[in-house]
Design a protein that fits this description.
about 425 residues; alpha/beta; 7 helices; 22 strands; globular
């Protein structure tokens, strides 16, 4: 059967809705195609730095000349099986792009614009672009209309505050990332899009922080001040504030949550340690190599670094380990079982054991995901198994771990359960 016909409508590819938040699904389907016919659907988008990311999948139309990613199976390409959002989470840098990339939204006030194409036959777009028979564009946003974004540079604090639409007062989250540094805003903007004020806090690797950019030069008073900043905000409920952190930010979450005068309503830790490799939080905690840490490093056959052993509880400085028995609020800890950057399973075990001994098992929720790596991010985010940790003065690639399909499933499930946990802890 011919693709073009004077009596057949033109092939149609739809994405519904075409504008969504990144944690929402988009239904992609096609119609008016030949029956039982091979096709390829391809997605492409540019990162904020201009790098091209793409994915593709092979489908076969049904007897009515249709296919739907919500119900039909990919038979090849970037993913296989029934994966409604596979085109998004399976994206990888296109051939010829820079090495060591990790997709992270720099500007949350603009969307990712995804070009989705329908190609004739089962083809690999990298080798055979095929014939495009239909196309559609989808927008993926990290910030919903009405959310207010405010850069905070006051009383020594460096961060960005997101406030949901309306007068409030709102429950809130203090949001911290890992030792990659900088000020990633995309998780906080999503929290605000879901009705939670969120303050993403920089503590290393930012030009507005004191001291060398590769060293944590702030201490307990800084993190306590960040929590108090939220408590004192006129649009925030002072007794409904949680803390969330990934990697080293997980340690800071637990540490800050047990500081005198800080009374969080909940804590969420993602793949991080319960202590530091240093005695004091703000002394010699650095992103550079150090003899003390390097003892615990290992490398794969490509020379990629594996930090996992550095955060084994037995390798943490005893004085730095959080007094977990002093936790008084619900704690959710999320484990990627293929985490190659932190000993997440062992740290989760220690948290669970300590809280049980303190008679606080009821406070602990553990989510554990086989096949998931270190970087458990908002749902449908592409996975980076490895990326550059530092580039100057030398290039250093680190392994995060994870396998695409189970990692994607973990991100989707963990995000849903995080929001439910926040709802229970911060709104009741």
């Amino acid at each position: 059967m011919r693709w073009e016909s004077s009596t057949r409508p033109a092939p149609l590819l739809t994405a519904t809705p075409v504008r969504t938040l990144v944690d929402e699904q988009t239904c992609i389907k096609a119609s008016f195609l030949p029956s039982n016919h091979p096709v390829t659907v391809c997605a492409r988008m540019r990162s904020d730095e201009g790098d091209l990311w793409q994915s593709f999948a092979h489908y076969n139309t049904n007897s009515s000349g249709m296919f739907n990613l919500n119900s039909d199976h990919s038979v090849g390409g970037s993913y296989s099986g029934c994966e409604p959002m596979g085109l998004f989470w399976s994206m990888q840098p296109a051939p010829g792009e820079r090495e060591g990339l990790r997709l992270r939204k720099k500007c949350v006030e603009s969307p990712y614009t995804v070009q989705i194409s329908l190609l004739e036959g089962h083809v690999s777009p990298n080798q055979d672009p095929g014939k495009e028979v239909a196309a559609v564009t989808a927008e993926r946003w990290y910030m919903s209309p009405g959310v207010k974004r405010q850069e905070i540079r006051q009383n020594g604090l460096v961060g960005t505050l997101f406030i949901p639409p309306g007068p409030g007062p709102f429950p809130a989250m203090l949001d911290m990332w890992g030792m990659g540094g900088g000020l990633p805003e995309y998780r906080s903007s999503l929290f605000a899009s879901r009705g939670y004020a969120s303050f993403c806090l920089a503590y290393v690797g930012h030009k507005d922080l004191p001291g060398p950019s590769n060293t944590v030069n702030v201490g307990d008073s800084y993190f306590k001040a960040a929590f108090q900043f939220l408590q004192e905000h006129s649009q925030i409920s002072a007794d409904r504030i949680g803390i969330v952190g990934l990697s080293y930010g997980c340690y800071l979450t637990l540490h800050t949550g047990t500081l005198p005068g800080v009374k969080p309503a909940c804590l969420i830790g993602i793949n991080g340690p319960v202590g530091s490799s240093r005695e004091l939080l703000h002394v010699n905690v650095t992103t550079k190599k150090s003899d003390q840490d390097q003892v615990f490093w290992s490398f794969d056959d490509q020379g990629y670094i594996i930090f996992k052993q550095t955060s084994l509880p037995s390798n943490l400085h005893p004085e730095s380990i959080v007094k977990l028995e002093e936790i008084t609020c619900p704690l959710m800890y999320i484990v990627g079982e293929d985490d190659l950057s932190a000993s997440s399973i062992e740290n989760a075990d220690l948290i669970e054991k300590t809280l049980r001994a303190a008679g606080k098992s009821h406070l602990f929720t553990r989510l554990s995901y086989p096949g998931a790596g270190h970087l458990i991010e908002p749902p449908y985010s592409p996975m980076s198994r490895a990326s550059f940790w530092v580039i100057k003065p030398e290039k250093l690639m680190t392994l995060w771990g994870g396998h695409p399909a189970p990692h994607a499933a973990a991100q989707e499930d963990a995000w849903r359960k995080m929001l439910a946990f926040m709802e229970l802890s911060l709104r009741r």
